[in-house]
Sequence to fold (563 residues):
Amino acid sequence: MIAFEQVTKCYTSGQEALSDVSFSIKTGEMAFVTGHSGAGKSTLLKLMMLIERPTKGHILINDVTVDGFSHRQIPLLRRKFGIVHQNHQLLSDRSVFDNVALPLIIAGFAPRDVGRRVRGALDKVNLLGKEKQLPEMLSGGEQQRVGIARAVVNKPPFLIADEPTGNLDPELSAQIMQIFKDFNNVGVTVLVATHDLALLARMPHRSLTLREGKLIGSGLPSSSMHHSPAQPHDEHQPSVQVDI
Amino acid sequence: MKPSVQAQSDTAQSGFMAWRQHHRSVAIESLVRLAKHPLSSFVTMLVLAIAITLPSSLNLVVRNLSHLLGPDSSTLQMSLYLSANVSASEAQKLASQLQGWPEINQAVYVSPSEAKQAFEQREGFEGLIDSLPTNPLPGLITLSVKSATLSAEQADKIESKALQLDGVASVKMDLQWFQRISAIVVLLNQLAAGLAILLATGVMLVVGNTIKLAIDSRREEIIVIKLIGATNAFIRRPFLYLGLWLGLGAALLAVLLSKISECALTYAVSSVIDAYGANITLLTLGLNDGLLLLACGASLGLAGAWLAANHHIRSLEPQ
Ligand SMILES: Nc1ncnc2c1ncn2[C@@H]1O[C@H](COP(=O)(O)OP(=O)(O)OP(=O)(O)O)[C@@H](O)[C@H]1O
Ligand SMILES: [Mg+2]
Fold:
């Protein structure tokens, strides 16, 4: 469960990136964050990871208020999240295997478990044959999948992605989204920030829409989109508690 | 109940093994990183080694100095002049009493006639005392004092103690040489200590700066692993090993440097010693000293790395 309670974020520059945002995402749900560039999508995700702290309001992860966490508590919180970045943030001097293994090494897994889990994660993103290569030897889509493998390798309960398909063509984007859905199907709570509206339109998931830091909608894509009709999968969605 | 306990201890054990394994791989990785830039690593270690060698050599010089002027050389002599009415047997008794004092190496009674003999052996004084009606020289007891551990105040104490003895008229002490030497030894010791503190700080700063550069060159990596939940301790670890290896390597080099300069010095000194026919052995850097240097180097490297890593890692936060 991820919940924001009247969260406001002012950067030190004075820029109010989020104002009075409240919502909650249930465990096992998949949702999107959308909005124009500068609307505050990245800020919202950064607040969850405590990369930034809210100026006002509270953030709850699994019913625990985390915004006051100390520097010692933050690493353990972050291990609950798998994060996928637009520019994938892989270490260029380490092999695919070593990159994916990082979260496990950090969490202190035994070496024999590391190998097994890394191969499992690479298998899920169809990159099993490339574990010895360096990231720069891979295509953009492959790099993104390595990033996803790294995000899920320690089986975190939350998967957070910021513009994961930003650099990819529509076909690859759809592939990546399918991978996210697969993880969601096995119980992972997934939250994806994107402004790829076309992609959203095809997904029967709730999206939190931001405009200039304010949450202006949190329903199915149809409610905020102009083209696609209402999704027929409505009843499959978990009923969601939303307070705007 | 039992299986779950078993399982728990298994994971704890494998957790510990994973931790140990991680330490080992981080230690090796840090060493490999040092070896990748052999020249700059060597230069850094050499600078550190020189900083370590300076105070340790000075300390060795001081120890040699006090060793050469130590108990065998018995530089401190005292003469107790006895009153005229003290008989030879009383004087002997006094001498053996003084011999019993813990500070005294040797107490020898010199009778007036022996004193006269000694006096007359000097050039130009032959027959001088014979020309006098009576022998004017008093009996005396010469004391040699265990000077190795003696301070000027302690020497003064012996003097006043001796003066209180019955039959002792006056005490003459050849203190100046002794005092000058012990003052120099104290001064040099203080200098070595001051230098050690100064250069230890220098070593930590140099290590700290090297660590800072290493952290800067791995900025991106640090930010990425912070983002996926690495603790500061985890991030610090490779840099602590780097500091440890730098310090240890520097200390090894320092021992080597000390040994080389020691050989050169022993060679130079031995010709002087041979010329004087003296039987002197120089103190050299022993096994314990070497180990102490290694321990100092390692802990200084570690401390410098810890301070720098703590400071610089904390300031690197994902944006
Ligand atoms: N570190 C920062 N310091 C100051 N202002 C910031 C900082 N990060 C973001 N902002 C500002 O906060 C606002 C929201 O930024 P944010 O990155 O959350 O937008 P976004 O919705 O992710 O945009 P995009 O789609 O372009 O990534 C913007 O106006 C931005 O200029
Ligand atoms: Mg953004």
In short: Residues A 11, 13, 15, 17, 35, 37-43, 195; B 319 surround adenosine-5'-triphosphate (ligand 1) (CB under 6 Å). The beta strands of chain B are 77-82, 104-110, 140-145, 168-173. Residues 232-276 of chain B form the longest helix (45 residues). Residues 1-9 of chain B have pLDDT under 50 and may be disordered.
